[in-house]
């Protein structure tokens, strides 16, 4: 194996599990609809030893491969050279720290793909969401447990903050499952591949997205509590009575819990809080106008 030949071992702190089955990358690309002659720009998160990078580059216009492990860069460079590919650019940076702007194609012609390390997968997904207006789709391989959390519907115990965030931002579907024995070292659980499509014109658009995510975070911050209490605890400008009034105004029973709310209900709640804050600010300005 390439790692052994270079006297390298997988790094646990980077969550490295390398795909060793040559047919699986082709399956992923097929299921993702990345066909030969695809004119899209790809950003790959964690190319590892290039198992997915090389076949992706044979189909796409260009691949920006972002790899945090500097020890793997010489191996990747050699693999790319041996394959005779000239449309791959390696970036020895963490996906959480690299400036993504220069990697994005003009308009909306970028697709993000990658096998995400379990320990930072939620952070990576949240970061990608910030650039979704420039990205058409994301194809992510995750541990099955994480994938189930993302696609979980309201009322399901797996439904949480990440579920709401991803489902607000895009259309999600499961593409495939990948067994643990297809990786080295073999992880304890299987993986799943999900597709997130980021629409050019979102069906739902909160008045203030920062506030929307703030409301979702507060609601799930103490998920065993009722929404009345979790919002009052998590939002500085809401007391219990104000939180209850806001929920009633949104048509949401204050005794419900966060995991029962559908995404549109979170949007409505955030929009009403936005209106309330605007009204409070305007009232404060009016009351504090200098006397003539």
Shape: elongated
CATH class of the largest domain: Alpha Beta
What series of H and E elements makes up the topology?
Answer: HEHEHEHEEHEHHEEEHHHH
Write down the overall mean pLDDT. Answer: 93
Q: What is the compact description of this entry?
A:
The protein is α/β, with parallel strands linked by helices. It is built from 11 helices and 9 strands. The chain is elongated.
Describe this structure in words.
The chain is α/β, with parallel strands linked by helices and 292 residues long. It is 38% helix and 16% strand. Strand 3, helix 4 (73-83) and strand 4 form a beta-alpha-beta unit.
Keywords:
elongated; Helicase, Ruva Protein, domain 3; 11 helices; two-stranded antiparallel sheet; single chain; 292 residues; Rossmann fold; seven-stranded mixed beta sheet; alpha/beta
Topology (SSEs and partners):
Layout lengths: L1 H4 L12 E2 L3 H9 L9 E5 L7 H5 L4 E5 L6 H11 L4 E4 L18 E6 L5 H9 L5 E9 H8 L9 H9 L1 E8 L4 E2 L6 E7 L11 H13 L5 H8 L5 H10 L13 H25 L5
